[in-house]
């Protein structure tokens, strides 16, 4: 029997007391009585009061039965969407965002309760009642809008069953887009419309610009449409979330240790106990890392040093133990692991002087054995070619540069390259410290015109040293600040007199009276330029023979060689992989999603390898986690690319929205139904009904006893004393 | 063994005076004898003894007078034979006015006790039995809407008078509806008592207090003593009905429909007001109204009533 059938039955039941009352009036027991005169007198005295009491008790009994009827009617969906009659339209905006996956201990998820209410509504609805279900997390896309369908048809097609197995997405809810879509459907319908928003009402849903968008969207609903907000949410008590997984700040090279970081936040209302996270890098698991106890809202950063053995795309996944909200227990990112680090040394003669010292420091044996390889070129005639697979460019005594080379170098730096300028005695920075066309200045310093009074002797005891206290922490000169004796041993004669460019950072200074800059850096785009204000040949310093030279130069290379940009986007963003390199030869591609094997492999269309800018594309990657693209090349070999999707941080704001915030955000009449304080949406209402029933029954009993309608069993009635 | 056999075999009649047992005894004579025996088992003196013999004067003995009537105390003082003369030569005359109106025929719930008329008859016969033991003369007048065609026995000091009264009351057909004419009954009682006497009225007294006052005034004017016994059923005293009920008047057939639980308190209040009114009406003429509950032991009821009567008269028994 449908809910409305039960409700009508309950109403019929409520009509029972007056009917029984009427029937009993007709079927009275007859008693021949002697003292009728006193009864008549008593009746005259009490007639009005008796009538009032009688009808009051009957009314209470009717109310009790009506409450029983309502309880039997299971008012969950009725409370939400009203009477699902024929000709009416219900547009259900189902919040299936990540936070709806909240599962209180021992209960079902919020989304399950919402789907149950929706399925219940469908089951009770008139077959001609039209229903459309919109996803609050997917409505803002170009997907076609679901059209309303008769409830009977939806029931026959098993729509409710399909909804029931649908998990919460990893997406952030966009109620404004959903209400806009609902308004489109409502405006196209002739008849009564109910827009039924089933949500958990998180603070993030109504925050800032979202509230403004929501207000605009709500204003587009028809004025006579009924807007019902069913709040199914509950406070999340225990929830640790992987807020972000950060790749190393420097380039990851196969076989070299790299430091990975992850940020863990306690998004629950209660403090969390200390726990561990498991970390997987590629196919290998590293030892679990401890997470300290965190108070509500607190965050901690954990680090993990690991070595990626193979070059290529590598996924790093951090996983927390399961808690009330499992959707945010994992976080991922993808880094590109490079085979080796390549440094390009440009000098007038790379075979001698500073260039040679640099090459020996970076690749001592010249065989790339430390996953670092050096290429050397003469600067004369260099046109900027060969930068594609170069990570660092070091230029000894920079001078004139061809415009094409400067332009190429500028673009390369902006894309993340690192440039080191060794300002020896013959350096000329005119072309480097000034803008050229649309290219900005490259050098972070300007050379000052000073008299060249260089000392000819290598072992000249005069000169300056680095001042350890001036060295910026974390810079490539940190070795000298770690132990002041190293700074004492290394002397620099006649360092380059420079003036740092505005915005440049001085990484260290000499100990001369003026505190001249020893190294100056600045960022250019994603890249960095460092100027070392001394020559590295023996005429300028004996440092290249010092044991400190090799580690400091290697630190310089690693500082200049910045890491690849984190390849992380939010869940829901389109998955697009450019067909570059060998992937350009791909003849087919398949996609493995984070839900594999629960979700099938997806064949991706290869968008013409021959075309420039070709790519494989998937419009929506809705799940958080790692996506793997398998490219099948023409020669039968496979190529793998990975991408990661993370949860929108806004969805990790699990604080409950206040009714006031909802009122301000909607800006139009609505009905708010609190359905989230118990195991299912209707339980709270049922409890209220049950409590009301008990109150009515108690009142009926008390009043009936007070009015003399009830006698205690076995109690003798009052009588006159003899 | 039940009924008459049980009553006859009883060594102590009081055990059979339980209203339920008494209701099982069909013959009124036996019922009344049981009540009388039960009463006497707890009392050594008749409550009516000597109340009707009053000394008038002495006269000189003359031949032919019975020797037993000589007052030997006077002879011992005066040495002359004298005969003691009483003003009333006969014993106490007592008329039992038994209400036989339809209201007395109320059938109690459960049927485990006598109805009001049977109770009144038992009490009348028991009283008559007690009176005849002391040579007093009980009489009977049954009344309803009138006294015509109902039982009427003149006062006789005959030992079989109580049995005759029982026979008359047993054979009494229910009176015709029409109420209770207390005035006619009082007039008949006064008429039947030539000298001073006692009138015992056994009725539910569901009459107007003014009617009762008129009857009481008539008794006082005729110098009769009167005892009013209001016989009410336990149902009328407790009103234990439940569920909606149609109450039909036994006298005039009028009806009241209602829920007894809601009416009970007001009914009991109205009944109590009525009882107070008739008690006041009787007391205004020096008479007493006593309540007889049909569910109570009748011997105990007799004890209670007569004990109260002796106390009121200032003559401890």
Structural class of chain B: alpha/beta
Unreliable runs of chain A = 452-459, 676-682, 710-722
Strand order of the largest sheet of chain A: 16-15-17-18-23-22-21
The proportion of residues in beta strands of chain B is: 15-25%
Our Rg estimate of chain A from Cα atoms comes to: 39 Å
Total count of domains of chain A: 5
Tell me the strand order in the biggest sheet of chain B: 5-4-3-6-7-10
Please give the count of helices of chain B.
Answer: 11
In the CATH scheme, the class of the largest domain in chain A would be: Alpha Beta
Helix content of chain A: 25-40%
The residue fraction in helices of chain B comes out at: 40-55%
Described by strand count, sense and barrel closure, the largest sheet of chain B is:
6 strands, mixed
Distance between the termini of chain B: 38 Å
Query: First CA to last CA of chain A: what distance?
Result: 61 Å
In what range is the share of β-strand residues of chain A?
Answer: 25-35%
Specify the structural class of chain A: alpha/beta
Name given to the CATH homologous superfamily of the largest domain in chain B:
von Willebrand factor, type A domain
Number of strands of chain B: 10
In N-to-C order, the SSE pattern of chain B is HHHEHEEHEEHHEHEHEEHEH
How many separate domains of chain B?
2
């Amino acid at each position: 029997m449908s809910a409305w059938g039960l409700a009508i039955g309950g109403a019929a039941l409520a009509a029972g007391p007056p009917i029984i009352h009427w029937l009993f009036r007709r079927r009275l027991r007859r008693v021949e009585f002697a003292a009728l005169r006193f009864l008549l007198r008593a009746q005259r005295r009490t007639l009005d009061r008796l009538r009032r009491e009688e009808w009051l008790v009957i009314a209470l009994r009717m109310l009790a039965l009506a409450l029983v009827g309502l309880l039997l009617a299971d008012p969950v969906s009725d409370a939400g969407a009203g009477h699902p009659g024929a000709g009416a339209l219900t547009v259900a905006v189902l919040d299936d965002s990540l936070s709806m996956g909240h599962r209180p201990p021992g209960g079902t998820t919020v989304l399950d309760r919402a789907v149950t209410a929706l399925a219940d509504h469908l089951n009770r609805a008139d077959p001609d009642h039209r229903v459309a279900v919109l996803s609050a997390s997917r409505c803002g896309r170009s997907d076609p809008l679901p059209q309303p369908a008769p409830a009977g048809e939806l029931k026959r097609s098993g729509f409710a069953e399909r909804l029931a197995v649908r998990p919460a997405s990893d997406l952030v809810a966009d109620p404004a887009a959903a209400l806009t879509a609902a308004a489109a459907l409502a405006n196209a319908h002739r008849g009564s419309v109910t827009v039924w928003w089933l949500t958990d009402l998180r603070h993030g849903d109504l925050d800032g610009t979202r509230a403004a968008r929501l207000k605009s969207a709500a204003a587009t609903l028809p004025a006579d449409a009924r807007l019902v907000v069913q709040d199914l949410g509950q406070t999340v008590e225990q929830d640790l979330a992987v807020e972000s997984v950060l790749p190393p700040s420097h380039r990851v090279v196969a076989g070299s240790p790299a430091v990975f970081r992850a940020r863990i936040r306690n998004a629950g209302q209660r403090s969390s106990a200390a726990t561990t996270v498991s970390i997987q890098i590629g196919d290998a698991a590293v030892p679990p890392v401890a997470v300290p106890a965190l108070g509500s809202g607190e965050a901690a950063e954990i680090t993990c040093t690991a070595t990626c053995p193979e070059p290529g795309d590598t996924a790093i996944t951090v996983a927390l133990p399961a808690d009330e909200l499992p959707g945010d227990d994992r976080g991922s990112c993808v880094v590109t692991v490079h085979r080796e680090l390549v440094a390009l040394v440009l000098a007038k003669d790379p075979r001698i002087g500073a260039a040679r010292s640099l090459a020996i420091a970076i690749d001592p044996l010249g065989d790339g054995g430390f996953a670092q390889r050096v290429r050397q070129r003469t600067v004369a005639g260099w046109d900027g070619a060969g930068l594609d697979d170069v990570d660092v460019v070091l230029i000894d005594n920079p001078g004139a540069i061809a415009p094409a080379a400067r332009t190429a170098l500028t673009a390369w730096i902006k894309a993340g390259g690192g440039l080191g300028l060794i300002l020896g005695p013959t350096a000329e920075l005119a072309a480097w410290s000034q803008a050229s066309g649309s290219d900005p200045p490259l050098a972070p310093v300007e050379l000052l015109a000073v008299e060249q009074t260089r000392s000819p002797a290598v072992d000249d005891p005069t000169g300056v040293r680095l001042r350890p206290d001036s060295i910026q922490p974390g810079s490539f000169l940190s070795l000298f600040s770690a132990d002041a004796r190293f700074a004492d041993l290394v002397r620099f004669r006649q360092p380059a007199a420079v003036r740092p460019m505005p915005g440049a950072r001085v990484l260290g200074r000499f100990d001369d009276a003026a505190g001249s800059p020893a190294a100056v850096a600045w960022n250019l785009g994603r890249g960095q330029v460092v100027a070392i204000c001394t020559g590295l040949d023996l005429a300028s310093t004996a440092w290249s023979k010092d044991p400190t030279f090799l580690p400091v130069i290697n630190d310089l290379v690693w500082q200049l060689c910045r890491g690849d940009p984190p390849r992380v986007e939010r869940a829901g963003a389109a998955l697009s992989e450019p067909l570059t390199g060998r992937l350009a030869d791909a003849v087919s591609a398949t996609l493995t999603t984070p839900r594999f094997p629960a979700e099938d492999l997806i064949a991706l269309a290869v968008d013409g390898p021959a075309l420039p800018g070709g790519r494989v594309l998937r419009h929506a990657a809705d799940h958080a986690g790692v996506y793997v693209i398998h490219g099948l090349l023409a020669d039968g070999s496979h190529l793998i690319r990975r991408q990661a999707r993370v949860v929108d941080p806004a969805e990790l704001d699990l604080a409950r929205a206040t009714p006031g915030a909802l009122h301000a955000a909607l800006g139009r009449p609505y009905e708010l139904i609190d359905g989230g304080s118990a195991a299912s949406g209707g339980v709270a209402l049922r409890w209220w009904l049950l409590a009301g029933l008990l109150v009515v029954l108690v009142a009926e009993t008390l009043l009936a006893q007070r009015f003399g309608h009830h006698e205690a069993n076995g109690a003798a009635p009052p009588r006159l004393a003899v | 063994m039940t009924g008459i056999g049980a009553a006859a075999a009883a060594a102590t009649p009081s055990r059979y005076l339980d209203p339920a047992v008494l209701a099982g005894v069909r013959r009124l004579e036996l019922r009344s004898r049981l009540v009388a025996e039960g009463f006497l088992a707890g009392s050594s003196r008749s409550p009516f003894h000597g109340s009707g013999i009053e000394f008038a004067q002495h006269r000189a003995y003359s031949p032919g007078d019975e020797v037993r009537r000589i007052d030997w105390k006077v002879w011992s003082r005066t040495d002359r034979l004298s005969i003691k003369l009483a003003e009333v030569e006969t014993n106490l005359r007592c008329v039992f006015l038994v209400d036989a109106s339809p209201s007395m025929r109320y059938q109690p719930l459960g049927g485990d006790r006598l109805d009001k008329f049977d109770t009144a008859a038992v009490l009348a016969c028991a009283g008559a039995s007690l009176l005849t033991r002391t040579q007093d003369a009980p009489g009977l007048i049954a009344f309803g809407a009138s006294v015509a065609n109902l039982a009427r026995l003149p006062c006789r000091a005959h030992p079989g008078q109580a049995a005759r009264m029982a026979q008359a009351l047993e054979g009494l057909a229910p009176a015709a509806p029409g109420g209770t004419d207390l005035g006619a009954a009082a007039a008949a009682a006064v008429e039947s008592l030539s000298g001073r006497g006692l009138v015992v009225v056994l009725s539910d007294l569901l009459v107007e207090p003014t009617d009762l006052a008129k009857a009481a005034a008539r008794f006082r004017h005729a110098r009769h003593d009167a005892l009013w016994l209001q016989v009410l059923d336990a149902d009328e005293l407790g009103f234990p009905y439940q569920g909606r009920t149609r109450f039909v008047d036994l006298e005039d057939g009028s009806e009241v429909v209602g829920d007894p639980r809601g009416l009970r308190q007001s009914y009991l209040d109205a009944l109590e007001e009525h009882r107070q009114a008739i008690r006041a009406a009787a007391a205004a003429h020096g008479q007493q109204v006593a309540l007889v509950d049909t569910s109570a032991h009748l011997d105990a009821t007799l004890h209670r009533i007569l004990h109260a009567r002796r106390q009121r008269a200032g003559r401890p028994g």
